[in-house]
């Protein structure tokens, strides 16, 4: 007779999945549990850097981290495969090439674009994966190249529209403001022919941010040639244009990138978990409602801030903090004790605006701008690299180089 | 009363135009003639390097030389403009923005693609200008990027067809053989999914080359994954495929590059000069038939080899040698003496096959291969750079670095 040890399966090696796996390794001795990590690729990527990949300001490989470099694969069973279906009835996960049984399941499968029913959204690019972000960079360059070789090119080919002025939209627009002048030089195209338009349905950019920070970002982007249009609803997306507003104004563009909304990976809804605005409204212990053994983290989860009653934004910082609670709670479920509730410890938020521009708030509302904010942003990025890979990793992949 | 000095107008700053301008500066004192050079861009480019730009193995700027860096613009009136029409009746050249009068005209306006009536040739890319060559590089990368982001991508997107296995076709296929493995690595695509197909209507590649050299090139390219198909006629070009042979086989491909034929810039035919297979059959002094004052050089000219009765191929080496004769003959027409006939001095021909591979013949048929040929190729390239810009230029732009 064989005794079986609890099988923990982690789906997805994003911020939530990779940090949960690392915390589980710390929580358990090798013989106590069997840990399996499933991911489509053999690499983890820094989603928070993908807007830079998409703009072409950093190379793809800067944003990639090999999983075997940061996870002890002698203790973790790493399976490179695609999740097809989660079956909670018999506690199984179907992959493209095999099936896994679990006792505890951690779902960190990330987001896909929320289209809000806008027709034609299949024409939109999204800053979602390494491949899709690189596609944006390549597409923009392709438009510049076509512009230089077509018989009677239209300037519209060079127009780049960013849909959504939330965190990602603003960060991406900021990178474009830096990148476009370089592309203009590379392709011998006058800068004034290229338009960067950022469209937002809300009356302000960066909803939820402090007004001072919003003003700073707006001024910085506008000064560097980003045309920001708030209170503007996108009604339809076409192959080479978008339609906005009640009077259905058509804005032609060679590139349209949608950053306006995310929702949980479709696998989550297909598994039967109830969705709130496209995500799973987890309990304070981060479990799917009605399930003791299924944790849902990161962009798949809707976590309510008890003080405000509003959900937390889906950020890397939150995903990483969720991983701590999730690993602790799995240990508690196996060995007993008290389950932890998730409480967000806001260490500050800094938005990069391209080049040496950034802004944000740290330490309970202390606001920072410009180079100071940029350095803090690098510190935050490097802190994560340190957590995930130790000091050598910060030197290898980090952005802030102390020497 | 003003005395006028002869006005020499050189159209095009390719190999023929730029070297003719340099030779004219040597032949004449500043007060003897007025020299005007007209070119679409403010740069000259190394047409012989464009296949490398197209494959992505060298950067665009390596192939570009600023005209003001190599031509004394205090002595030469440089006009950056586009030639619209040559009017030999009143000895005028119409540019987009002005009109020039000439006493002696030198036409070095280069080639455009000869399509031989193949339908759909507008879908073909050509290795023709800096912009068009970069378009090929960008297009190929775009196909790789799309392949990684489309729902159900077809491997056909990754197929690259090179039409024509003459000098340019073979050199380009060789560069692709080097470039594709790097692209596969960059985009995480297995090499075997990418096809490079070189199609030639003649029964052999490199028609006119020595059989040993042909065999060497064929083996080198085939070994590195180029599928060479000779005796194969292209019947039609579609947006995503070509049709070949009498049984109309369809070969799907994401990229089709035509290197199979060139003819004179259309301006030449429109000016009324009689064309032989798309080029002007100039007299031995390199003048257009029936004109004492119009010289036609480089890819626009059909120059017959008196010994064989066949035309010389349109190469950089011939264009450069023609420039000497042209400049001498203009001086003779102005100051008297005997006009020179053009005689080709074959200094050897070396074809680069990508990476460290090359082959060719030098010194009356002495054959060289591999690294030796590659070095010789660099020596040839650098010799031109030396002629056009002096020793500093060889260090700045040259390929063969002695230290």
UniProtKB/TrEMBL annotation, chains A, B:
<keyword id="KW-0285">Flavoprotein</keyword>
<protein>
    <submittedName>
        <fullName>NADH dehydrogenase</fullName>
    </submittedName>
</protein>
<feature type="domain" description="FAD/NAD(P)-binding">
    <location>
        <begin position="7"/>
        <end position="323"/>
    </location>
</feature>
<keyword id="KW-0560">Oxidoreductase</keyword>
<dbReference type="InterPro" id="IPR051169">
    <property type="entry name" value="NADH-Q_oxidoreductase"/>
</dbReference>
<dbReference type="Pfam" id="PF07992">
    <property type="entry name" value="Pyr_redox_2"/>
</dbReference>
<comment type="similarity">
    <text>Belongs to the NADH dehydrogenase family.</text>
</comment>
<dbReference type="GO" id="GO:0003955">
    <property type="term" value="F:NAD(P)H dehydrogenase (quinone) activity"/>
</dbReference>
<keyword id="KW-0274">FAD</keyword>
<dbReference type="InterPro" id="IPR023753">
    <property type="entry name" value="FAD/NAD-binding_dom"/>
</dbReference>
<dbReference type="InterPro" id="IPR036188">
    <property type="entry name" value="FAD/NAD-bd_sf"/>
</dbReference>
<dbReference type="GO" id="GO:0019646">
    <property type="term" value="P:aerobic electron transport chain"/>
</dbReference>
């Amino acid at each position: 007779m064989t005794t079986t040890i609890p099988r923990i399966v982690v789906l997805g090696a994003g911020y939530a999945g990779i940090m949960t796996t690392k915390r589980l390794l710390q929580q358990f001795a090798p013989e106590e549990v069997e840990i399996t990590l499933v991911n489509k690729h053999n690499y983890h990527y820094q989603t928070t850097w993908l807007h830079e990949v998409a703009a072409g300001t950093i190379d793809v490989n800067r944003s990639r981290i090999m999983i075997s470099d940061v996870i002890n694969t002698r203790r973790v069973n790493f399976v490179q495969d695609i999740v097809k279906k989660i079956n909670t009835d018999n506690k199984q996960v179907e992959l493209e090439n095999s099936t896994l049984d679990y006792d505890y399941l951690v779902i960190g499968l990330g987001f896909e674009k929320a289209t809000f029913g806008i027709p034609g959204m299949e024409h939109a690019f999204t800053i979602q994966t390494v491949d899709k972000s690189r596609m944006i960079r390549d597409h923009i360059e392709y438009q510049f190249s076509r512009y230089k070789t077509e018989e009677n090119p239209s300037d519209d080919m060079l127009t780049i529209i960013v849909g959504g002025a939330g965190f990602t939209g603003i960060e991406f627009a900021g990178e474009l403001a830096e990148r476009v002048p370089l592309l203009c030089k590379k392709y011998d195209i006058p800068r004034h022919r290229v338009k960067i338009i950022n469209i937002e349905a809300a009356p302000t950019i960066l909803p939820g941010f402090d007004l001072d920070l919003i003003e700073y970002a707006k001024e910085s982007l506008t000064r560097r040639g980003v045309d920001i249009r708030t209170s503007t609803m996108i009604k339809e997306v076409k192959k080479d244009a978008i339609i906005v507003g009640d009077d259905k104004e058509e804005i032609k563009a060679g590139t349209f990138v949608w950053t306006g909304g995310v929702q949980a990976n479709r696998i989550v809804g297909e598994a039967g978990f109830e969705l709130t605005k496209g995500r799973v409204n987890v309990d304070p212990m981060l479990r799917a409602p009605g399930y003791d053994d299924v944790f849902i983290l990161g962009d798949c989860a809707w976590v309510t801030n008890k003080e405000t009653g509003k959900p937390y934004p889906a950020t890397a910082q939150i995903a990483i903090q969720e991983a701590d609670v999730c690993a602790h709670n799995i240990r508690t479920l196996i060995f007993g004790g008290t389950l932890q509730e998730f409480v967000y410890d806001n260490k500050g938020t800094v938005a990069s605006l391209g080049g040496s521009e950034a802004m944000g708030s740290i330490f309970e509302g202390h606001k920072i701008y410009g180079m100071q904010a940029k350095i803090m942003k690098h510190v935050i990025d490097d802190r994560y690299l340190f957590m995930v890979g130790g000091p050598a990793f910060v030197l290898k992949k980090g952005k802030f180089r102390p020497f």
